[in-house]
């Protein structure tokens, strides 16, 4: 059942130290800023964060990193012109980094959500990112075995939710959110609008409410 | 969810449950707001016994959450059917998705509960419900294996004995298996059972039969108490 | 590029003997009846058909089977009250049958469409349907390895297409079609309506046009 | 697609191509109606040289087909960006999808073409474009490996020589690899190349340099003809 929360602080309550947290967004599009700010106030530490990037400028995920709450980050593209918070932590050995190809990152979370124990992909074969991973020939092509990324919590952003937790997104702000929603034990969503069941087109729902545990409306 | 009874309740002053009563007993154990898949056949009838305010959301594996009651008359729409291919309706808050997404939902452990029929269930919770294994029988599995493996809890709804009087709760299934160690509870016409996972079968309630008689007729380790 | 065909016959032209053909539909919902009728007229033989069921009554997929064009069928649920055409062919040894769990069937096609060389699933472990298949322990659980199902052709049905091939479906007639569209070299779609690009909501497109090769409008 | 030239065309009466000219040459080789992903950086500029009537449909890996030109002024929408995180626009017939679907599209071989930058390309088509391998460099791969492996054809757009004058087409890459044997063509400021798959590199056209001089400066087996 989906819980409509009164505040972002309520929505992120109970996140434990040491949790694995999926954080939606591609750059700042779809980044759940208010939930991250609440997680900073909530104070859980020693987190493993999975997100496409490692924070931009000084807000959002970058602020969470700056707060010293993140032990390890799993992402595809940490290095950006405005990733100075991460860069500094990384160079001073204060954060662990695991780089994964972007499609592998998405597919590993999808696997966790879909009950797939592992899958073979051609991406990364023969590269540094496949070192130490099992490879296998299938029908004459070489594949690398990748394992699921399951998480304790997903923090994502959507455009509109109904009170059952069905979600729709807006343009490329959709990005990782629907996949992350499936891969976490508890999925927390910040939305711009909340409507009653029946107000979203059932053909256009992107994330069915079964994947959503907590919703909070934030000012748009 | 109703707590497991500390000791069996025996209703020996009446006969076995009818099919409607069986469905009602099971429906009463479905938690409020649960996401539930009801298998083809008798399990489908459980929907008729869910109170409207229970907020239970029905999944059908052919790509829908928020399935409503059977469609009749002008409401019949060939594009809107359930897993048994009968016309159904759509409730507010429904959503549609394709088959890979629908089965990812099942296989990824997101459904709270599924209700399935069975040929046999073993004391360890092995389920046999897809194939009689008879020579000439055409095998057809549908979504049974996916449901049995994927749902967080699996309830079986079946008569306890075959027409020939053979018990369907057995030490080891003789029919081809659907999935290993997946069944949590069994709802039958004469008793409800809890599978504990350590090869004990706990009787929760009986109708028209005593615990002692049940024990004499089933070749599994039956307990009257979870402790 | 998507080709708008003038007839179902044009849409199925060129399907070769021995092809693997994905046929959409769950029972009759979403069954591409007109495309199947055209395939019967076109006459390709020795086909391997992948579909959830093995035909209902005497039309659609059942008619294709009755025409003797199908060597093998891969499906999850052949046996139904009205599957007499298949039943007779099967019992007389005139058709080969491979039964797969419904979710495995869908996921194997998704894998083909997504470049996945194989995946591990718990479905089927310990059953007849996993016999002869590789199993593997991952994180203390047993999984079975399943391989992709790629096809030469997919025949599917949708509700509305734009001329770029973007598709939307209607209710549970969606079922296997979006997955099949990704798994075939040539995807052929029968639709009830054709509109111009821009008339479908980009947020609600289910099958992007990249997966669609041929469209034909059929009377609804 | 333009047929591979039977013999190299040498434009020695002029200097090397400018960046705009490079993009225009590559754009001219993109087939009508193709589904194309343009990588971050210089490859993005290819879009400016596609004729509007070419029907080329641009994919951006952050979840969109039918991407339009860069957004400016009031059209800037923070929810609508490209893979380089710059604001873009939406064309009629666009569609949005999530990241797993977007990369399934790439990895499943559905894109006709991608255009990528590179540090190095080997004579066998190995690509190195994600990591300098220098001590202290922070690795960041993004979607490069997925694109290189997944697109039906991979075009590289780069200058042929580093600022220090080192050729970027090499026998074996010394930078960390992005993918093996994936590059089909290389578009540079001084020449375009076809990778044949048998370790030969065919020169298709040159600007401001002769085939003979190219051959003297590159340490790979250069051919002037595909036969």
TrEMBL record, chains A, C:
Pfam families: CoA_trans (PF01144). Coiled coil: none annotated. PROSITE patterns: COA_TRANSF_1 (PS01273). GO terms for molecular function: CoA-transferase activity. Keywords: Transferase. It comes from the Bacteria. Belongs to the 3-oxoacid CoA-transferase subunit A family. PANTHER family: ACETATE COA-TRANSFERASE SUBUNIT ALPHA, KETOACID-COENZYME A TRANSFERASE. This is 3-oxoadipate CoA-transferase alpha subunit.
Automatic annotation (TrEMBL), chains B, D:
This is 3-oxoadipate CoA-transferase beta subunit. Transmembrane segments: none annotated. Pfam families: CoA_trans. Gene3D superfamilies: Glutaconate Coenzyme A-transferase. It comes from Pseudosporangium ferrugineum. Belongs to the 3-oxoacid CoA-transferase subunit B family. Signal peptide: none annotated. The keyword Transferase applies. Keywords: Transferase. GO terms for molecular function: CoA-transferase activity. InterPro entries: 3-oxoacid_CoA-transf_B, CoA_trans_fam_I, NagB/RpiA_transferase-like.
